[in-house]
Amino acid sequence: MPLSHQDQVTLLKDILNNHQMDCCGSVAECEQLERLIKSLLVNNQINQNVKNILQDVYLYSQQGAQTADLDQHILTNQGNLSEWVSHIDQFS
User: Fold this and answer.
1) Handedness of CA 19, 63, 47, 80 (dihedral sign)
2) pTM reported for the whole predicted model
3) Are the C-beta atoms of residues 12 and 37 closer than 8 Å to each other?
4) b (16+ CB within 10 A) / e for 20-49
5) What are the Cα distances from residue 90, in Å, to 49, 73, 79?
């Protein structure tokens, strides 16, 4: 059963929140973020403001999947993580 767009947004926020709180993550999580974002970007039910944020999160996840030090990448983006979740909550 496919996830609804709201379930996808919730999963996206959960992963971002975990990265922020734990200051660590996995390449698999970054790849999951990429898949979620690709799906959400083509969804007409998603607010354009959220789509703009998703572009930034997509870049973050791509860089995270390719970095040699994912934990440092997450630590460097702590401010962005909380900001993205907050903005997604506002518009979704």
Assistant:
1) positive
2) 0.93
3) yes
4) beeeebeeebbebbbebbeebeeeeebeee
5) 10, 25, 17
Residue 92 has pLDDT above 80, yes or no: no
Instruction: Say how many Å lie between the first and final Cα of the chain, rounded.
Output: 22
pLDDT tens, residue by residue, 17-32: 999 999 999 999 999 9
Pairwise CA distance, residues 70 & 88, whole Å: 23
CB 54 within 8 A of CB 91: no
Domain definitions of the chain by residue range: 5-91
Question: What is the CA 75 to chain-centroid distance, rounded?
Answer: 15
CA nearest neighbour of 71 among 30, 32, 41: 30
Contact yes or no for 35/3 (Cβ under 8 A)? no
